[in-house]
Amino acid sequence: MTGPSASSVEFVSVVKRYPGQSDPAIDKLSLKVPAGEICVLVGPSGCGKTTALRLVNRMIELSEGDILIDGVSIRTRPPAELRRQVGYVIQQIGLFPHLTIASNIATVPKLLSWSREKIERRVVELLDLVSLPADLKDRYPAQLSGGQRQRVGVARALAADPPLMLMDEPFGAVDPINRERLQNQFLRLQSEIRKTIVFVTHDIDEAIKMGDRVAVLQKGGKLAQYATPPELLMSPANDFVEDFVGADRALKRLSLLGVRDIDLWKAPLVRAGEPTARAREAMAEAEVPHPLVIDAEGRPVGWLSERDLARDTVPAKPTTSPDPILELEDVLRDALSSLLEHGSLYGPVVDGQGRVIGVLSVDIISDFLASEEAKALAAGPAQRAEA
Amino acid sequence: MLSAEAALTLAQVEIRDRSNASCVAQNKLCPGWIVDNFDRYTGPLTQHIVLTLSSVAIGFVIAFALALVAHRERWLVGPIVGMTGVLYTLPSLAVFFLLLPITGRGTLTAVIALTAYTLQIIFRNIVTGLDGVPLEAKDAGRGMGLTERQLLWRVELPLALPDIVAGLRIASTSTVGLATLAVFAGAGGLGSEIIAGSNITFKTGVVAAGGLALLLALAIDVVLLVVQRLLTPWRRVKPA
User: Fold this and answer.
1) What is the least distance, in Å, from the CA of A252 to any CA of chain B?
2) ipTM score of the complex?
3) Cβ(A334)–Cβ(A322) under 8 Å?
4) Residue A73 phi/psi, 5° resolution?
5) Contact B136 A57 (CB under 8 A)
6) What is the dihedral of CA A20, A25, A28, A34, to 10 degrees?
7) Residue B43 half-sphere exposure, CB side, CA atoms within 13 Å?
């Protein structure tokens, strides 16, 4: 699904050579980014990923080859005009310290001579879009937190509704906790706006999380592999990619899957006031060795301990808390880390209404990883031979 | 008919006059004399203000033009700093006397010399200010499609403003001081009161003229500071 306001981008045998350097910074790079998708350029430092990005809006000029936006060569468009149609977000954000947040966001609309009312409306709309309170608009960048500044940077790049966005390590300067939040927020935003995005990072986890497609570049600006994240993890094209993706790529697969993608265990459910004998029956049918108490609406209340089971009836307040309570929509990796954080082997999984529909256990995940690893080993050599 | 009160006032004035006269005769510091003779300073003070403001203004225009050229052609920074540096080190009296045969006695000669002295400070400060603009702000500006000219006027110069005004403040304070020598170029100013009637030993006159120069320097400094604060509201916000 692509909105009307997204462009395709195509690199056609792009070469960038700097004077005085024998090896090119980008070497015959060809790749196609379909409209509305996020393409992540990832690789070690010096692989030319930022250069490749800056070629697109002519911040750096091509040596050979071409870049087509919706089939039109960037060479035919004057740089300033081209850049006003292409959103640009950099790691250091680069907000103008002397302008208010509203004026910062209005930079490109002003260059395009929008009317004052239209600009004001757009600023309010954009602040809302990036989940910032509207009263920030009269503040200066120095008055904002790093995460807020980062979102203003995104809002500013989106101001004139460009069909293409270039983002150079946009979350690189944010602390890990906020980065995670900004990434999720940005993915939610992207599901609304459906822009074509070329995104640069050195962090393979970020690449896998953010990208519809990931282009792994190696030193000298050579494209090592261009694939969807699952493909990249399941069948790296060569040793470099395999190395770069890391030995824990099976684990990384977890960040691509949701709790709903895995077979859950059946939960031995009981309600308060029922005889404990009923709980023992339920346990015998299920894989989880502890009965889970639910309330009238089916929501988890807690796990019964041996001591609880020694009574005649199920208590309303079981000894063990049900945490962590997981949701069907959770990413599998986050679900696993919740379990580990709580030191719990099992977590009840609830649906949108909070009703228990099964149990996720550390065992399920480790079995799944083992089978993934086996699949990857089986598929690996064959695919590598092709590549 | 003289009331007792009026008689008392008259007597006081007489005493003050007599004490002024004796104070002046003894060449002490005589505030009374300054108050009584304040009129004689308005002309020189006005000349001094004109000399200072016109020199700094012309100096700013020239230094600004040079700085913009050097901002594009970086290699010019060294030569321009060198040249204005030479101007800065020339003894001002010598410059006045060298210019006299060409431009004659008067304001023009003084302004030319005083302007020459401002160039170095103002030029350096503009260049420093432009160099201090955060690289990422420039990169983001270009990346959003600002032309070099738009970047200069909308981003670089506003951000360089504090440094530019700082340069103007130093330049105008030192010009106020240097302009006391303009009297040797026949341009008047407060210097004419300092050396009034070659009576350079008249302490009260020197202190009065010098004090006025000091106040003038202070006033210009404060005005520039206020202007800078009004133009750079973003510098006064509390960081998050």
Assistant:
1) 33
2) 0.79
3) no
4) -65, 135
5) no
6) -140
7) 7
pTM for the predicted model, two decimal places: 0.75
B237 vs A141: CA distance, rounded Å: 10
CA of residue A262 relative to chain centroid, distance: 20
Check if A108 contacts B (Cβ < 8 Å). Answer: yes
Our measurement of the distance from residue A372's CA atom to the centroid of its chain's CA atoms, rounded to an integer in Å, reads 21
Three-state DSSP at A61 gives coil
DSSP E strands in A228-364: the ranges are 269-271, 292-294, 300-303, 326-327, 346-350, 356-361
pLDDT in tens, chain A (387 residues): 334 489 999 999 999 999 988 889 999 999 999 999 999 999 998 899 999 999 999 999 999 999 999 999 999 999 999 999 999 999 889 999 999 999 999 999 999 999 999 999 999 999 998 889 999 999 999 999 988 999 999 999 999 999 999 999 998 888 888 888 888 889 988 998 899 999 999 999 899 889 999 999 998 889 999 999 888 887 888 989 988 887 677 777 777 778 878 888 888 888 877 887 777 777 777 778 788 888 888 888 888 887 777 777 777 778 788 888 888 888 888 888 888 888 888 888 888 788 888 888 888 888 877 776 666 555 544 343 333
Question: Which pairs from A238-245 meet CB under 8 Å and 24+ separation?
Answer: A238/A384, A238/A387, A240/A216, A241/A216, A244/A42, A244/A43, A244/A44, A244/A204, A244/A216, A244/A218, A245/A204, A245/A216
The number of helices, as runs of H, and strands, as runs of E, in chain B is: 11, 0
The C-alpha atoms of residue A244 and residue B141 are separated, in whole angstroms, by 34
Q: B222: buried, middle or exposed (CB in 10 Å: 19+, 13-18, 0-12)?
A: exposed
Neighbours of A246 (CB within 10 A): 14
**In a mutagenesis test of the B interface, which of A57, A58, A77, A98 is the best target, namely the one with the most B β-carbons within 10 Å?**
A98
CB proximity list for A312: less than 8 A, separation 6 or greater: A275, A276
Query: Nearest residue of B to residue A95 by CA position?
Result: B137
Residue A195 contacts residue A87 (beta carbons within 8 Å): yes
Nearest to B232 among A82, A98, A145 (CB): A98
Tell me chain B's radius of gyration from C-alpha atoms.
24
For the record, the structure tokens of A62 come out as 């091509």
CA distances for A73 relative to A55, A88, A177, B147, B148, angstroms? 12, 19, 40, 21, 23
Pairing state between β A300-303 and A292-294: antiparallel
CA nearest neighbour of A192 among A134, A128, A101: A128
For residue A384, give both structure tokens: 């590598």
Count helices and strands in chain A by DSSP H and E runs? 15, 16
Q: Quick check: A151 contacting B, CB < 8 Å?
A: no
Determine how many CB atoms are found less than 10 A away from the CB of residue A306: 8
